[in-house]
Amino acid sequence: MTAETTVTAPPASQTLRAALWMTGAIVSFSSMAVAGRTVSLDLDTFEIMLYRSLIGLVLITAVVLLTGRWAEVTTRHFGLQIIRNISHFTGQNLWFFAIASIPLAQVFALEFTAPIWALLLSPLVLGERLTRARVLAALAGFVGILIVARPSPDTLSPGLIAAALAALGFAGSAVFTRRLTRSVSTLNILFWLTAMQAVFGLICAGIDGDIALPPLTAWPAVGVIAVAGLVAHFCLTTALSLAPAAVVMPIDFARLPVIALVGMLLYAEPLDPFVLLGAAVIFAANYGNILRETRSARKA
């Protein structure tokens, strides 16, 4: 199948720029995973989210003030912002729990199911039609989940369940973000992301009356988590603005072998062929759906 029959290829220069931005996203996502596992020795997931969001809020506020775009930070669709950020906060907490509990490659493989869950949530949130092709993509993605997780009394663990549910949380965040982008700016979304999740983190971390302060040695990892999260999403968004998803997504999938090698080198995690096979099935389901959506959009 040639590129001409699937997607309209962007200019070579834009494809190269998109690839470079995706390299930044891959490095950022991988750095966040390593930093998250490191800091999990000192902080629980709610505390990680609290400090990450506070640092992020300072950075976003500085950007808003320096660029003079404070007028964009409105309370329009505030209810949707709350739902979106509860979904993301839940998914991110589960993700941090998972990376401290199971091999990093398993977490990333299951995270790639988020677009599959988004397909199923889109009719409820965005009013999009659930086509047969989307249902088939979801079913194929579910097969990939089974290959990665191989659920049984011996293999099923809280970490695996957390990683799978984290993908569902990220999917909910994605569809509500897409709905919000119809009427508010990305800066508005990022501001309320950091502000609300700082509040959520403070409430959840402090519910037991004890909020741990990171030791001095943990602050660099906390800073990496905060900065890498924002940089990763900025790089991904920029790449998608330069090239179609059908071009960008195969580059994004490189996150899996990269994090598998990181896990092997830093934590002596074995390279599980079932994780790679399941992730390939999940990727094929996502990529096939992107190609079908692209063809449908061209015909419309």
Can you describe what's shown?
The protein is mainly α and 300 residues long. 76% of the residues lie in helices and 0% in strands.
Offer a quick outline of the entry.
This protein is mostly helical and 300 residues long. It contains twelve helices and no strands. The chain is globular, with a radius of gyration of 19 Å.
How would the blueprint of this fold be written?
Elements: H1 12-39, H2 45-67, H3 78-99, H4 104-111, H5 114-125, H6 132-149, H7 158-180, H8 186-206, H9 219-242, H10 245-252, H11 255-267, H12 273-299
Summarize this structure as a short list of keywords or feature phrases.
12 helices; single chain; 300 residues; 0% strand; mainly alpha
Please compute the radius of gyration using only Cα atoms: 19 Å
Largest sheet: none
**Quaternary structure annotation:** single chain
- Stretches with pLDDT under 50, minimum 5 residues: 1-7
Structural class: mainly alpha
Average residue pLDDT: 85
Residue share in helix: over 70%
Q: Whole-Å distance between the termini? A: 21 Å
- Number of extended strands: 0
Helix and strand pattern: HHHHHHHHHHHH
* Number of alpha- plus pi-helical segments: 12
Shape: globular
Taken as a percent bin, the fraction of beta residues is under 5%
